[in-house]
Amino acid sequence: MDVLTEALRWLNDPLNWTGSQGVLALTRTHLEISAVAVAAALVVALPAGLWLGHRGRGATVGVVVANTTRALPTLALLTLLAAAGWFGATATALACAVFAVPPILANAVTGVEGVEPDVRDAARGLGMSGGRVLWTVEVPLALPLIAAGIRTGAVQVLATVPLVALVGGTSLGTIVVSGFATQRYGKALAGGILVAGLCLLVEGLLALAERAVTPTGLRLRDRAAASDARTDTRSRRRAPVAAAVRPGSNGAAPSP
Amino acid sequence: MPSGPVLAAAANPWFSWEYLERNGADVLRFTQQHASLTVQAVLIAFVVALPLAALAHLRPRLAGPVLAGTGVLYTIPSLALFALLAPLTSTSRETVLIGLVVYALLVLVRNVLVGLQGVDPAVRDAARGMGYGRLRMLLSVELPQAVPAVVTGLRLATVSTVALVTVGVVVGYGGLGQLMFRGFRSSYHAEIMTATMLCLALALLADLVLALLGRVLTPWLRGSGAPRAVPSAREEAAWTS
């Protein structure tokens, strides 16, 4: 295919990789903006999510927040900010952070809220204060879901940052957008491959990190549930749903 | 003569009826493009998703790969996906449409599958006891039971499709995104704000219509306190549906 060879030729040209607008520099900017955005989202969403989950009144908040941001186009937010005079890396990062808040918040809320009431009662019965229950019981048990939310948020941000190129910012999306703008579709394709590759790579790394922070006990429990499901078809109901929920936690919303 | 700031504010307001009056035809055209892209994408995705999810449900072995595959595909940003599709379809309306269908498909397959798997085993046993075969059970027992999850999936898919259409601006078929981009280029505040508001309104309207449709399709859930509606609401909250 013509465009494909053009893309491969573009990727093979060392001149496209070095320099201030080269792939390496753009990747670095991309990752820097993403890191700032995720950090900002964490600062806002994590404490709020844990608190709402602990209080047990988070579900409605989660739904409302999640639905509103899902309906708000990324492009709208970026153009609005840019038109209001908010240019630069910080503004971009803040705009992208908006899209990482809902998954982090919602997963923290449901994770903490979903801890079995018996476990919580037992901790209370031992005389633990609310704060200690949260830190020593609820958070460790909710860790897999919280980590999944952070992972979703991070990938969401990584996927949002390319759009910044449409309003004049720099990121790997710059390659795609300038490729389309100059009708060099090979270049656009090369940019697409790079962006998708970066997202898949980071997603894989974060999935490993998520696995690493999941307490061994929880992992063993999940494995037991899975093997139960395999042997007993009647009790299949619970386990596959759980299985669908856990890996599925990387996003009900498609990447912008 | 009004003072400086007032004049500046009046020159480029965020909200302006005048803009709508002058550009009504444009706004209408792009709104129509936006709506038609959304409706087509969700409909096509739904037609493809239903049998796919049913297949994954009947052959549980396939469920794992299907869900894992959707997870991986989600990771690819829409901008990158449009760039990857462009060589195949050239820069046309189809590029955007295919991309939108892919994302909507993922949401729908996952939700329908979760809905089918979530059917109460007692209900399934009862159907089996009445001599229902596998296919008949799927069509007349499990699918109706999964309607709330399917509707949740449709709502999610539709709302995020409305937002995603705007990214189509890179290939020139972004619906209201086209207006946002044009407004940004000429730094015309009212144009950006109008397009944004219309986008949100479109998403809200579609969501309401689908919610009503869900209510109409599930008469048995009404009036009884609807305990089954709770899990689907939680699913939505968990960002995991």
From TrEMBL, chain A:
Protein's name according to its UniProt entry: ABC transporter permease subunit
Pfam families in alphabetical order: BPD_transp_1
Keywords: Membrane, Transmembrane, Transmembrane helix, Transport
SUPFAM superfamilies linked: MetI-like (SSF161098)
Region (Disordered): 223-256
Topological relation to the membrane, as annotated: Multi-pass membrane protein
InterPro entries: ABC_transp_perm/SBD (IPR051204), MetI-like (IPR000515), MetI-like_sf (IPR035906)
Family to which this protein belongs: Belongs to the binding-protein-dependent transport system permease family.
Domain annotation ABC transmembrane type-1: ranges: 27-206
Record's subcellular location: Cell membrane; Membrane
Coiled-coil ranges (or none): none
Broad class of where this protein is predominantly found: membrane
Domain of life: Bacteria
Species lineage: Bacteria, Bacillati, Actinomycetota, Actinomycetes, Micrococcales
Residues that span the membrane, as ranges: 33-53, 74-101, 133-150, 157-182, 188-209
Basic and acidic residues bias (residue ranges): 223-234
Automatic annotation (TrEMBL), chain B:
Top-level taxon: Bacteria
Membrane topology classification: Multi-pass membrane protein
Keyword terms, alphabetized: Membrane, Transmembrane, Transmembrane helix, Transport
Principal subcellular localisation of the protein: membrane
Subcellular localization(s) per the UniProt record: Cell membrane; Membrane
Transmembrane portions of the chain: 37-55, 62-84, 96-116, 162-181, 193-213
InterPro entries (UniProt xref): ABC_transp_perm/SBD (IPR051204), MetI-like (IPR000515), MetI-like_sf (IPR035906)
Claim: Transport is one of the keywords in the record: yes
Residue ranges of domain ABC transmembrane type-1 in the record: 31-210
PROSITE patterns: ABC_TM1 (PS50928)
Any Pfam family the entry gives: BPD_transp_1
Family: Belongs to the binding-protein-dependent transport system permease family.
Name under which the protein is recorded: ABC transporter permease subunit
Species annotation: Cellulomonas wangsupingiae
